[in-house]
Give the backbone structure.
Amino acid sequence: MTLNRFDSIAFMYDFLAKFVFGRSITDSQKFFLNKIEDSSKVLILGGGTGWLLADLLKMKPNCEVWYIEASAKMIDLAKAKTGIKYPVHFIHGTEQDIPATAQFDVVITNFYFDMFTGDSLPQVINKIKTSVKPGALWIVTDFIDNNRWWQKFLLQTMYAFFRITCSLEMHRLPDWRRSIREIGVIKSESRFFYKGFIETALYQF
């Protein structure tokens, strides 16, 4: 993933998501936060503007969070939302910049996998797998393709928008659920939003 591609739309990213999907984007990402134990070490990959980080820290203020985001402007927005009173390690980067010595109790990847091709995604998932403790929780929220015409239309429209504004080269949604199954991680719960177009799932390593 290339750094800073989303800088140009950082200021309006949350507005656009809410305009298109209403509360489904935020509700899906918050759904499993209550499963996180206090004092957990949490890795958030691709956290965006930081609203989820702020909600997590209000709910679980004793968690220590590593917040990795490819957009410098998104990180600035996230820092403004959380202030300095919480233990957050902000890293401008991608999954390749996960600290080698860190082992996490929880990983959150929300709308992260839709930025990768089907060929590159297994490498991303394996990188995450090496960064967690046995029994760690993994919260994944993303779009799924149910082969419905309106979902395909929305996906094509979103990818076209990001190609124009962020030089994103993606054209189709990878089968991230299959890629996760292939590494043997167990899905314990899931919920669907926006008429089944968005799934949030809780996995355990």
